[in-house]
Every structure is written in C-alpha cells, then in structure tokens.
Specification:
The protein is α/β, with parallel strands linked by helices and about 120 residues long. The chain has a four-stranded mixed β-sheet, with no helix packed on it. A hairpin with a 6-residue loop joins strand 9 and strand 10. It has one domain: Cupredoxins -  blue copper proteins (Immunoglobulin-like), CATH 2.60.40.420. The termini are far apart. The chain has one helix and ten strands; from the N terminus they run H-E-E-E-E-E-E-E-E-E-E. About 20% of the residues lie in helices and about 40% in strands. The protein binds copper (II) ion (CU).
C-alpha cells in the first residue's frame, strides 16, 4: 500500500514539474513584417514577452477579449505611450525603432503585465 502511495506521490511531483516547465510563457519573436499579435484575456497578455531586434520598427496588434475595465488601457511607462483597447477589435500600435533594453507594459492597474525585449 505504502509503495503505491509513494508511486502516486512521485507521479504527482512529475506532473507538477512538467506543468511548470511547459506552462511558462514563451517569448515570441517578431515576424519579418514586424507585426506581433497580442491577445488580452484572462488577466494575461499572450505572448507576455515579446522579443524584437534592435533598431527595427514594430507594430503591436492588441486584441482585447476581456470585457473588464482592467483590460482597457495599455501603458508603456518608459516610452510614454498609452492607449485604449476597444473590446473585440484589433488595435495596432506602431512602436520603435527602439534601442536595446527591456520595456515593460501593463494595464493601468498593473494586473496585466508584459515585456517588450529589444535585443
Ligand atoms: Cu488592470
């Protein structure tokens, strides 16, 4: 009996490790056109980490699926950029070119969080 419990515990641990490993937000690279779609839903930006090459202009295309007011604004504090997201529509925002660095973005309450990484 104890053996089976141990086996179950081991399986559970394996599952948890697997879950944390694979559920980590994947960084997304900009396509050749420089357009990156970002879905705003369930409290997260997807992708939450966007990698772009230094010196290239990019367009972030936000798609807001979350009706809560929390999701309605996007702020790039370091870039002095702020804009509203219409619900259910695409909102394209041209950014850059930027110098290398990390530029966090968020909703006005800092619940949605993302990062634009320029390399
Ligand atoms: Cu918010």
């Amino acid at each position: 009996m104890g053996f089976i419990v141990n086996l179950l515990a081991l399986a559970l641990m394996g599952f948890i490790v697997w879950w944390f490993w694979f559920s980590r937000p994947q960084a997304k690279q900009a396509s050749a056109s420089g357009v990156i779609e970002v879905v705003v839903e369930n409290g997260v930006y997807t992708p939450a980490r966007i990698e772009v090459p230094e010196g290239a202009p990019i367009t972030l295309c936000f798609i807001r699926r979350d009706p809560s007011p929390c999701a309605e604004k996007v702020l790039f504090n370091e870039l002095d950029i702020a804009f509203d997201l219409p619900l259910g529509e695409k909102k394209a925002v041209a950014i850059g070119p930027l110098s290398a660095g990390e530029y966090p973005f968020s909703c006005q309450m800092q619940m949605y969080r993302g990062s634009l990484v320029v390399k």
